Fold this sequence. Notes:
alpha/beta; Nucleotidyltransferase, domain 5; globular; 11 helices
Amino acid sequence: MRIVAIDEAGYAPLLGPLVSSRVEFESLEPTSLTNSLLSSPFPIKDSKVLYNGRKTLHRLEQPVRSLYPESTTSGSYLKAVAEYGEPPFYWDPTVKLPLSTLSSLEPVSILSSASGEVRFRGATSLYFSEQKFNHLYLETPNKAELLWSLLKGHIRAVLEKTKEDVLFLIDRLGSRRFYAAHLWELFQKLPDAVRETQNCSEYRFVQKDRIVWFCIKTAADLTEPPVSLASIFSKYLRELFLHCLCKYFGERLGEEVQVSGYRDRRTKEFIRQIEKRLDEWRISKEQLIRIA
């Protein structure tokens, strides 16, 4: 069975891309994968739990690098995990990895050595730069729909490349509980089985050669280790983007820049500081500042 977990980072900031990532595994059953990730030498938890500023970046970087140890620059990492997308103007592909001095330089397997029945099949990140996000939001002023378009890209890519049974584990999009109409876009049919509760929406599609399950849960990034790992990949790529943003503007301002990109005081002060100079640098607000 192919097990695919999906989660996002950067849903509601002022700066930085919206990133959605999937991680794919082959496993006989979800429990084997969960147990293997829980036995990882690195904690596999929701990225919001693991990450609290640059001093904790190694908590994201270590599990990512354990699966992609050959990526020694930001450019090689983006090439390894990003299927498509136009990087923001401040992107620097020459940044050396790891970013954190606390990240292990020696590759260590994230999967338990006893988990022979679990195989990692890759991670993929899709993203909208600030400019792309703003353009799409003006066409469809609904952030949940923009996130769904990334989610749909993940689902289509998986279904096109594999013919085996697939289980999708997905963190619920906000408070939405009903997804059958959205899944119609992909399958052109209603689900063969539906179970929609307060905290979990489950669907089953029976196809000619396989069965496709969806489990869309509230707080799946907290309770499902595969989804937690997907959140780590999303957050790590977003932090790479933010690192490049800070580097880009730090060089132009002649001072160190450290911002989260979210709606905190430091980020808002940084935006006020540079807004008056954007014309000088030939940068439009639409390229940099998210409108929603």
